[in-house]
Amino acid sequence: MNTRAPLLLRHIVLLGFFMTAGLTAREQELPPDQADSLESLTKPAWVTAAAIDQPHLYYFGIGRSSVSQLAADDAARVDFSRNVSTHVKSRIERTVEENNLRIREKFSNRTEINSDMSLKGIVITERFADESLGSWHSLIRYEKNLYDSLLQEEINREFERMKAANELEEKKLEEKNRQRIALMSIDSTSRAISRKEEEQERSRIQDYLERQKTHMLFLQKNYRRFIRMKPYPRIVNTLTAEVPDTRHMFSVKGSVEPLAPLQADYRLKFFRIFDAGAQVEVRDDLVHRQSSYLKVQLLPGLGETYRTSLAFGLTQYGAELQTYSAFLNNIDSYYSEGSLFAAANVNLPRRYLTLALSSDKRRSDIALLWFPFFNNFRNRFALAADLSYTWDPAFRNRFGDRILLEPGLEFYPLENFMHITLAYEQNEFITMRFDLLRGK
User: Which of 309, 334, 332 lies closest to 321 in space, CA to CA?
Assistant: First the structure.
C-alpha cells in the first residue's frame, strides 16, 4: 500500500496539469464576446479606476488614447508632467537659492525648465491595450524618493550647463565692456589729440596773423611813401588802371634811331574816375593805326599796404588807314574792331615794384615798373618792362611777332607836368615819348 500511494500522487499531479492546459486552450478559443468579458475581468486597477494604489508614495501619470499606443504614451507623459510640475518648480527654485546661482534672463524661463526636467530620464512603466474596443492605456509611475533623486541629478546637470553658458555670456559681456572701455579710451585720447591739434592750429594761425600784422605795420612804417605813390597811367605801352592826376594829357612819341614821328595821343579825365583817350600811329608819314578808349576806375587805389586799383572799359581800334584821301577812296577796306578791356595794378612795397595787367580782344600785357633808387629819387626814375601777346594779326609788328618784350626807362622830372619814356619797341625802334600834363 505504501508503494502505491506515491504513484497515485504522481497521477493526480499530471491530471491537474493537463486539466489546466485544457482550460487555457479553451479560454483562448472563447468567442469574442466572452473574451471581452474575460478581458474586463483582467484589466489593471489603474486602467479601470484611472488611479493607482497608495498615490502618496508615487508620482504617476495615466494616459489613454483611442488612436494608438504612442498617443497613449504621450498622454501619460503630459499627465505625469502636470502632476509633478509644481514639485519640479519648487526643486529648481530651491536649487537656485541653495547654490546662489545667477542665471541670466535667457536661461530663467522656469516653465520650459519644468517641462524638460519633469520628463528627463522618465520611461513608460506599464501599458495595457484593449484592441477589440480600440483603447490603449499607458502608465508612468515612480516612487517619490527615486524620482526626486533622478530629478535632482537632471536639475544639477541642467544648472551646470546653464552655469557654463552663463559664464560664457559673462565673458562675452566682459569682453564687450573691455572693448567699449578701450574704444572710449581711444575716443577720449583721439578727442584729446584733436583738441591739442586744434589748439596748436589756432596757435599757429594766431602766430601767423601776429606775424602778418607785424609785417604790415613794418611795411606801412618803412614804405609809407611808396605805398601812397600813384603809379603812372601807362607803363611803356600798357594802360594801367590809374586815372591821370591832371585833367588833360598830351603825348607825342618818335623814333630816336631812325629819327621819325611814330605816335600822338590825347587823354581826358572827368568825374575823377573816368578816363577817355584817342591815339594815332604813323609810319613813313602815313596814318598806320588808330585807337580810342573809355575807362572807369572801379577800385581807386585801395589797401593800406598793397595799394591796388582796378578798371574796366571799352576800346575801339583800326589798322591800315593810310592817307586820309586813300581812306575815303577805300573805306570798305578799313579794318576796325571794338571790345571790352580790363586793367589792374598793384604796388609791392618790399621790392619797390608796380605790377600792371591789361587785356582786350586785340592784345594782353603784363608790365613791371621798378624804382631801384626810390629812397633817393622817389618816383623820378624807374626801370620798365612790357611783355605783350598780340592776338590780332593786324596789330603785330612788321615781323609778325606775337610776343614782344619792350624794356624801357621812365622819367618824371617835373611832377604833374612832364613824363618821359625811353624804350625799345616793336623789336625795331628806340623810342622816346613825352607826356605833357595840364589842369586839375
Answer: 334
- Assigned C-alpha cell, 87: 514639485
Question: In 10 A of CB 80, how many CB atoms?
Answer: 26
Gap between the Cα atoms of 296 and 299, Å rounded: 9
Contact 369, 354 (CB under 8 A): yes
Chain-centre distance for alpha carbon 345: 42
- Which residues are paired to 60 by β-bridges? 141
CA 400: distance to chain centroid? 55
Q: What is the pLDDT of residue 435?
A: 94
Cell numbers at residue 413, please?
622830372
pLDDT beyond 80 at 19: no
| Cβ-Cβ contacts under 8 Å for 111 (sequence gap 6 or more) | none
What is the rounded CA–CA span in Å between residue 42 and residue 229? 136
* Domains, the chain, ordered by start: 45-222 (3.10.28.20), 230-438 (2.40.160)
Backbone phi, psi, residue 321, to 5°: -75, -30
Report yes or no: 117 and 158 within 8 Å, Cβ to Cβ. yes
Segment 96-111 mean pLDDT: 53
Question: So what's the pLDDT on residue 152?
Answer: 80
Q: What is the pLDDT of residues 362-406, one digit of tens each?
A: 999 999 999 999 988 888 999 999 999 999 888 899 899 999 999
Q: Is 55 helix (H, G, I), strand (E, B) or coil?
A: helix
The pTM of the full predicted model, rounded to 2 decimals, is 0.54
Using CA atoms, how far apart are residues 76 and 87, in angstroms rounded to an integer? 18
Identity of the amino acid at 405: L
Q: Radius of gyration (Cα) for the chain, nearest Å?
A: 61
